[in-house]
Each structure stands twice: as structure tokens, then as C-alpha cells.
Amino acid sequence: MKIKGILQIVAALAVLGILYFLIPWSIGFGGFFGWIVLLAGIPPILAVALFLLVGGVTSCRR
Fold it and tell me: Total structural domains in the chain?
């Protein structure tokens, strides 16, 4: 189970890495559309990352 937990933590970090590139791209894309992408994209991505991170930590603790 620990391997699954570690993989989930790595996946959560990868999702957060996507955010790291999405934010400058959205702002650089410019204008109103970039901000819509930014505001619509961040909450679901953060939710997925948090879900994976919590699942991974609980799997490692077992």
C-alpha cells in the first residue's frame, strides 16, 4: 500500500506542477479569456491535487 500512496503523492505534485505552468500561460495569453481560463481551471485542479495528496498520505500511514 505504501507504493500506491507514494505514487498518489507524486501525482499530486505533478498536478501542482501543471498549475505552475498554467498560471503564467493564462496571464501571458492575455485579456479576458486568460482570466476566465485561470479562474475556471484552478479550483478543480487544486481539488484533484488535494484529493490525491490526502489519499497518498493516508495510504502511507497504513
Answer: 1
User: CA 30, CA 9: separation in Å to the nearest integer?
Assistant: 32
Amino acid 30: pLDDT = 66
In angstroms, the CA 51 to CA 27 distance is 26
Domain hosting 9: range is: 2-61
pTM over 0.70: no
As a whole number of angstroms, the distance between CA 55 and CA 41 comes to 22
Q: How many residues does the chain have?
A: 62
For residue 57, what are the contacts with CB-CB under 8 A and spacing of at least 6? 5, 9
